[in-house]
Predict the 3D structure of the following.
Amino acid sequence: MGEKTTANLKIAFQGESEAYFRNRAFADQAEKDGYPQIARLFRAVAEAEAIHAMNVLRLRGIVKDTEANLERAFGTETFAFEKAYPGLIRDAEDEGERAASISFSQARDVEQGHAELYKKAMNDMMSDRMPEYHICTVCGYVTDGPVPEACPICQATSEKFRKIE
Ligand code: FE2
Ligand code: FE2
Ligand code: FE2
């Protein structure tokens, strides 16, 4: 693939992904403001942007077989908690941005948990262990065990956990 198109696919993916999340957040706000029909529009367009992002992702050849995808997912989570977030946390602390620092710190700890789950799943590929996963809807912590009374990362209570289908 041409150099410019390779770079542009990455730019398009970032733009479309951002648009998806921005529209999701706008939809939540529209619900809060009492405009359910506008919320639906934001959700519809969000879904369209997600389709664009997925199309670009396919063109970029990011999706491989599941064993390779698990390895990549493990690698990116490991990079996130070992290298990326520690740098972001340092910068937030240097600038006295306490809310950002707390958010980054929680995400770092959560990513470490994700990496561990991927590692386990890689080992499980040949076995018939079928864990169920629950996610903390506040911080993104995922567990393959029983739902804890309080989230170990953000202390949210057990009702904030959602089972992943
Ligand atoms: Fe789009
Ligand atoms: Fe993660
Ligand atoms: Fe949490």
Q: What stands out?
A: The CA atoms of residues 124 and 134 lie 18 Å apart. Residues 3-60 form a domain with the Ferritin fold (CATH 1.20.1260.10). Residues 77, 111, 114 surround fe (ii) ion (ligand 2) (CB under 6 Å). The chain has three domains: 3-60, 64-127, 131-165.
